[in-house]
Amino acid sequence: MEQRYATHPDQVPGMDTQGLRDAFLLEQVFVPGEVTLVYTHHDRIVLGGAVPAGTVLTLPADPEIRSEYFLEHREVGIVNLGGTGTVTAGGETFTMPKGACLYLGRGTDGVELADATSADGGPEDAAQPGAQFYLFSAPAHTTYPNALVLPGEGNRLELGDPLTSNRRTLNQYVHENGVRSCQVVMGVTELHPGSMWNTMPAHTHDRRTECYLYFDVPDDARVVHLCGEPDQTRHLLVADRQAVISPSWSVHSGVGTASYSFVWAMAGENQAFSDMDTFPVTDMR
């Protein structure tokens, strides 16, 4: 499990491009046949990917979390970005098509991730790509029930305006009025054709760390992700299926060279979606 230590706002102005990428960007989240995890000391979040690629993967209890099993002291949200897969947890098997979100609460043991199989034991659909599970975990101090949200079942919000190139559909999955959790808030946003900004005005929420996993980004496109303090902005060029750690003091907004989608997930002081501090673009530097 890779560790990323917390950063102070004063460090960012002195970072070069590679320094910013090393601190905040996860370039390789999905590795076939592996579980890839990064522990960030910003709100002690663990995020990463699991790609079964025909095998059965177990969610590991790496030494960095000092636990007998991964969810002994944690909770996790899982979004499948590939073909249909299954997650077996606590003796129950959940089938997850692309876009489904699974919440697993503290104390859930024996988490196994796999591609879905047909009745004869082979791949459910060999013509389709295998499952790609995105994982977002935070410490938990009580237990909430495991819950699966299928595509289209979350709370849907239509936001933005095509005139400002940020018309988007926001799907809330794990949140205070939906699937309950201790800290994790999680969902998926899809930009409409012709829209490229994921949010504007840019904002911070000084009480929560947020992580973005960009996907459905064309191979020849990139997302320009804004970060840093509002008067000291920097940017990261982000490719398909790469993730960004956004500390609580950092703005997070982005614009793509084409439409795209992203998984957003947060953990910290509260779960209020509206708890954010916005900054007019005219005041940003």
Quick structural overview:
The chain has 285 residues and is an all-beta fold.
Report on this structure.
This protein is mainly beta and 285 residues long. The chain has a single domain (2-283), classed as Sandwich (Jelly Rolls), CATH 2.60.120. Helix content is 3%, strand content 42%. The strands form five sheets. It has a seven-stranded mixed sheet with strand order 1-3-4-11-6-9-12, with no helix packed on it. A hairpin with a 2-residue loop joins β7 and β8 (92-96). The protein is globular and about 55 Å long. It starts with a strand and ends in a 6-residue tail after the last strand. Its EC number is 5.3.1.17. This is 4-deoxy-L-threo-5-hexosulose-uronate ketol-isomerase.
CATH topology annotation: Jelly Rolls
Strand arrangement, largest sheet? 1-3-4-11-6-9-12
**Number of helical elements:** 1
Topology order in helix (H) and strand (E) letters: EHEEEEEEEEEEEEEEEEEEEEEE
CATH class: Mainly Beta
CATH homology group: Jelly Rolls
State which percent range the strand residues make up. 35-45%
Secondary structure class reads: mainly beta
Radius of gyration based on Cα positions: 18 Å
Global outline: globular
What would the average pLDDT be, to the nearest integer? 93
Number-wise, the strands total 23
Q: What is the count of distinct domains?
A: 1
Q: How far apart are the termini?
A: 35 Å
**In which range does the helix fraction lie?**
under 10%
Instruction: Characterize the biggest β-sheet.
Output: 7 strands, mixed
Second rung of CATH, namely the architecture: Sandwich
The low-confidence runs, each spanning 5 or more residues with pLDDT under 50, are none
